[in-house]
Amino acid sequence: MAEQRPILILDLHNTLYDEVMEYGGAMDAAISHFLGAAKHQGVAIDESLMCRQLSEAHAQARSDWDDDVWSGIAELRKLSGLPDIIDEAVALRRKVSEKLTGERAYRSTIEAIIRLKKSGAAVYIATEATENAAADAIAWLGLDGVLDGAYAWPFRDRHETAGKTPVRRFPPDPGRPEYSVRKPHPLILGSIMLDAAKAEGLVPGHATLEEMYKLMCDEGIGGPEKAVVENARTGGAGIQARDVMRAAQTRLAIRNGPYGAALEGLRQRCVYVGDSYFKDGLLAANAGIPFVLARYGKVICDADRKRNDECRKRLFCVTGWNEQVIRLTHGDVKLLEPTDKVTPYFVCQESLQELVEFMKSAR
């Protein structure tokens, strides 16, 4: 009989480390480098326009971690020697990102993950970071070789993977198969469950998502969530907003068949941990998996408040995401009747270790 080990699936951003401070700080360093070069050359750069162009470029690239976007920013073409300046800014951003990821890691949570893995649990990451950014974060957090796998948004065909952790792409979107699904689409967790079932020998290695699952649509999502579509501007960000809305309405069910009972048994051993009711809570609910709220991921201490506001502002102004999606993700806009749609199985106030202790006491 296969080992009945628990399966822990975690978000990355604001669950394992403070992404607002890391991304905002790293992006701020890169932008400051461009502005410094402009000042040195005596060139006037409109920072607000540059950030709008950067946001649009991120939306078109469908990635907030694509360093190639800088060469397409019209406002930066005023600079002489732009390729070299871009290389310098990219290197600086990466250096600052690594530094801030380490400094802003939730260390107690990282340690709890390592202990869980040593105790026999399977541990996966599901993040909307692109493959390259996910692999970097895993290495910088000291989790390479600890995780059973990481699932992320595709990043073309070149990225540095974590050496010991397989980094896999989200599955194709059934509505637009040329792209991968986005949170809170339940196929993300469905693919992790299927791979875990294959690893345990519960289903054959050739089994497909289509054979194991069926998808259903629930159009009962309303209120602020509908503003994601109604207020979406045209272009890449608007398309992403519609993808997210469709994902929020999708439910995953395990098909009846020779492996249905085994897959359902594995699902009963899964929990999903994240900081966002919208993208993480709905993701878990859509897949029929208990949701653990990482409330600590939204806590800002007084000493960090001013810098957090600055980093948050920077994140919001350069991200390729639709503003309503970002605000729902960060909790600025609340789900209507959240307890009806997303009821956390458990709330971690300060660390994942609280879930570990709870699970021990529940045995």
User: Which strand order do you get reading across the main beta sheet?
Assistant: 4-3-2-1-7-8-9
Quaternary organisation of the protein chains: single chain
Q: What best-fitting shape do the alpha-carbon axes yield? A: globular
CATH architecture of the largest domain: 3-Layer(aba) Sandwich
Rounded mean pLDDT score: 88
CATH topology of the largest domain: the name is Rossmann fold
- Name of the level-1 CATH class of the largest domain: Alpha Beta
Secondary-structure-based class equals alpha/beta
Given the structure, what is the number of helices?
Answer: 15
Helix content: 40-55%
Provide a descriptive summary of the structure in words.
With 363 residues, this protein is an alpha/beta fold. It folds into two domains: 7-18 and 107-299 and 333-362, HAD superfamily/HAD-like (Rossmann fold, 3-Layer(aba) Sandwich); 23-100. Helices cover 48% and strands 12% of the residues. The chain is built from 15 helices and nine strands. The strands form two sheets. A seven-stranded parallel beta sheet has the order 4-3-2-1-7-8-9, sandwiched between helices. It has a two-stranded antiparallel ribbon with strand order 5-6. Helix 5 links the parallel strand 2 and strand 3. The longest helix has 23 residues, at 19-41. The chain is globular. The chain starts with 6 loop residues before the first strand and ends with a helix.
